[in-house]
Amino acid sequence: xxxxxxxxxxxxxxxxxxxxxxxxxxxxxxxxxxxxxxxxxxxxxxxxxxxxxxxxxxxxxxxxxxxxxxxxxxxxxxxxxxxxxxxxxxxxxxxxxxxxxxxxxxxxxxxxxxxxxxxxxxxxxxxxxxxxxxxxxxxxxxxxxxxxxxxxxxxxxxxxxxxxxxxxxxxxxxxxxxxxxxxxxxxxxxxxxxxxxxxxxxxxxxxxxxxxxxxxxxxxxxxxxxxxxxxxxxxxxxxxxxxxxxxxxxxxxxxxxxxxxxxxxxxxxxxxxxxxxxxxxxxxxxxxxxxxxxxxxxxxxxxxxxxxxxxxxxxxxxxxxxxxxxxxxxxxxxxxxxxxxxxxxxxxxxxxxxxxxxxxxxxxxxxxxxxxxxxxxxxxxxxxxxxxxxxxxxxxxxxxxxxxxxxxxxxxxxxxxxxxxxxxxxxxxxx
Length: 431
Prior knowledge:
By secondary structure, the protein is α+β, with helices and mostly antiparallel strands. The protein has a single domain (46-428), classed as Clam (outer membrane lipoprotein receptor (LolB), chain A). The protein has 7 helices and 16 strands. Strand 6 and strand 7 form a beta hairpin. The termini are far apart. The model is unreliable at 1-12 and 14-35 (pLDDT under 50).
């Protein structure tokens, strides 16, 4: 009798131990599943998605040109429509583009996990800065309620953490004379905080200079700018001015870029320092942000720049693959008077938080410039990262433009940050 009781007790204990072990094995999997839940809603779903798919039955796979653009005018960005339909101002060119079906963004696991982990901690401070943002990563406000929250989604968004852009090609274009001056540039970029894909995560340790982002650039063309280099450093401190330096090889001199020149155009281009490389490159607190609605727009978010075409004098690429997106529209107003861009409208991808297009107004309230950022979805860690791969900016008043294709972007190559992001390396990386 005693032996039977002991056996039953032992069996019960063994079963309990096995159940406990099984629960330990399942718990991490359950946690991983929860962490992998994407908290950002798609651009279209439900009845709205059905309407889009019905529209795509007519237009997906077709090419939009001057002859049929009127039929989709409500979805074509204003500046693009004007360039396509007014040959007297912008040249008698074929600015056609193909229409792609809408495709949702497939975020990489690192972005999923970071958003699930850190977004509950995101809290906006009285100074309009997300508290301790440098210790977090992912999308801080998956469903933003204010324009400032949407702007912070853009600001903290991972664009690959670290990458090299080899031999990008761009040119300013004078539409009247068709005069151009092509340039070839390579860029090294690293985010020191808000990292989600490339270790160390979520931030680089021993960040003595408290850098948020750094970018090094070297030029190969035009001839008079060969071996020109520049370094841009953005700091974690949101109220500390960014730093920039340039090395002029013909003078063998390094000069500092003054922060007061952020709104100047440079080297004959149409964009200012705050436009490039992602549509906005300053601290967020300089502007007021307001969500003014959503708008269905044909934008380039799944592009392949290898098939873009352009003839001399064209201020837009031909062949930009565009898809219908329910873009979030942000009204952006500069706080201090006298800034060259007093007001902008940003058209943001609500899934990747990239600025895919923007309208820029001058001090008289006229639509002055339109800019487009074309993103390519690159595979990384079993998901995607939205990488800006090409740009176009049209000055509608001066009839001028600037275009740029980034070139081959390497997001996997290992390289030493300190070998690029220091002042003493500006001339060492030159000749």
